[in-house]
Amino acid sequence: MTLKANAQLALDTIRGKPVRGIPSWCLFLMEHGMIERLADAPPGSYAAAPEKTYLEMQRRAGICMIDQYIPRNPLTIGRSGYASDQPRTATTGLQQIELDGMAIDSPEAVIAHMEQKVFPQKQASLEKIRTDPDYAGATLKLMRESEGKAQAEFGGDILKAPYNRVAFPRLAYSQYGYENYFMAYALYPEVMERGFALDADIAVLVNRAVAQAFAEGGLPPLNRMDFDMADSRGTLVDIKSLDRIWFPHFARAIAPMLQTDVKLIWHCDGNLMQMAPRLLACGLRGFQGFQYEDGMDYEKICRMKTRDGADLFIIAGVSVTRTLPMGKPADVKREMQWLI
After folding, report:
1. Quick one: which of 23, 286, 263 has its CA closest to 159?
2. What percentage of the chain carries pLDDT values higher than 90?
3. Inter-axis angle of helices 135-154 and 50-60, nearest 10
4. Which of 122, 169, 172, 318 is the most buried (most CB within 10 A)?
């Protein structure tokens, strides 16, 4: 497919070529009326045709690149906020958490489920990938098909970049809920590290295949790694514990990708300042999403370098909790100038 000017600007920027202008990243608007207004569509259009209206909004806004494409996500939001008919989960108010027939009602229950259910499942997954002679080929086929389908939907106007294709160990609060999982993390770090080690064992094999898929699939060499590790106060767990039991396995997990030209960047929610230099030391090449009001020192981050001494790849935007909802147009323009 022949890319048009906006999409080509994004691709050339990703590849590090000299360009004129700065490409714009996707808009994650949730309010239906705003989506419809930017799409120049009548009221009710988004609910009636979500994908069509959402994509038209991106096009008319001049968007150059989309990685995470979630056109139906605003359907979870009504006129007064989060739709009350959405099912509750472990992190959105579910009162009784049950996994595999086990009640998750204590940190010990978390550990029991991990040891009895999760670790055997992960070990089985590891062996399955390890013994599958066509795993790399299947990964290439899947990425080509899914990315190609989205690019065909976008046409040549907007570049589709891969999103969250790279595997790495994650905190499991979304399964167990915050309270019991983080108590288990603090009380049983050796069990947690066993889980991270297994995740990394799997990720090494997965990422070898993903690296090959990027090389042979002709995909834009950018991957945003999206997982929340901080809130407004700082990292969700003590940074020293991450140094001991998470970062070594994270670095091992992403090592296959560092042999490619793919730029790995990290999505920042909350105050991630303590993690930023550590992520760069592991081989990441940039960041996306900055909550300046939570302590993310944007100017300091922009002065940081990759571990090879190169400038960072940055996707930034105007504050969505201060400037956009409460500022005037002049405030938005001023912040844009500061970001650039």
Report:
1. 23
2. 94
3. 70
4. 169
The DSSP secondary structure of 102-171, one letter per residue, reads EE--SHHHHHHHIIIIIHHHHHHHHHHHHT-TTHHHHHHHHHHHHHHHHHHHHTTSSEE--BS-S-----
- Does 83 score more than 70 pLDDT? no
Query: Looking up tokens 């013994």, which residue turns up?
Result: 131
225: left (phi over 0), alpha (psi -120 to 50) or beta: beta
Q: How far apart are alpha carbons 264 and 284 in whole angstroms?
A: 5
Q: Where are the strands (E) in the chain, listed by range?
A: 65-66, 77-78, 81-82, 98-99, 102-103, 159-160, 222-225, 230-231, 234-235, 263-267, 286-288, 313-315
- For the chain, the residue count is 340
pTM (global) more than 0.85: yes
What sign has the CA pseudo-torsion 276, 279, 284, 289?
Answer: negative
